Amino acid sequence: MFSLKNDHASSKFGLEKKILLPVLLLLFVALLYYNFAYTETTRPGAMLQETLHNMEHNFDAFELEIIERGPGYTMEFQGNLKNNNIIYGKISNYKLDIYKHSSGKLFIKDLKDDSWKQAIELELDSLQGFFISPLQLLVSWSDLFKKAKFVKYPGEEERVILLDVPPQEFVRTVFPGNSLEEKSLLLECLVYIDPDEQFINQMNLTLFEQNLSKIIFNRTFFIKRFGQKFPGSSPAVI
User: Fold this and answer.
1) Phi first, then psi: what are they for 188, rounded to 5°?
2) Does the pTM exceed 0.70?
3) Residue of 96, 172, 162 whose CA lies nearest to 129
4) Cβ atoms within 10 Å, residue 116
């Protein structure tokens, strides 16, 4: 009798073991997959890529503000960005109307006769590098995303991502046509993302000397949804 009971208990235990092991294995695999998926989507580079994709595919216009400060000067632009390559607005502290056409040509309204002219005609072609879409910059730096890092600032609800942009990259993208002693400089890019909305609220560029002892300039882009104040006709065809 004892032997029968013992055999029955052993058989029951063996059956439970056979059922339990596959279940535990399945749970373990599911946990591994969830952990991998969560890690992939919360990596800074992956978050940047997903956010850019969301903004490029779900918005065709934004309000755009650019503030740049350097030794002895400040420039403040308020306007709009359309299709990620058309910029229109005003440099308020210089009272200049600006229109950057999709071709890349920069037009400025001449204060003397109120007509649109190419920046080079007014000897203001140095502004060309100022009017660059922040989203275009990030796309051009996408190879750097794998080295992106999260940084923490007290009180910030957004996720802040740091990109260190090497000299050859920022000279090509931020300062096209300008000659800089690039080896002695470092560009730091901070991107402020609302993770729930998958939206970049702010991007900050700071150009340092390599030893961080001196800031050459700081440029901040503020981005808001639904910019739409564009002129009825393009200066490119005036």
Assistant:
1) -105, 130
2) yes
3) 172
4) 19
Neighbours of 67 (CB within 10 A): 16
Domain boundaries, the chain: 2-40, 45-229
Distance of CA 120 to the CA centre of its chain: 29
What's the CA gap between 218 and 201, in Å, rounded? 17
Give the pLDDT confidence of 32-82 residue by residue, as tens digits. 444 443 334 469 999 999 999 999 999 989 999 999 998 899 999 999 999
174-224 pLDDT per residue, tens: 776 555 555 678 889 999 999 999 999 999 999 888 776 788 889 999 999
Q: Which CATH class is domain 45-229?
A: mainly beta
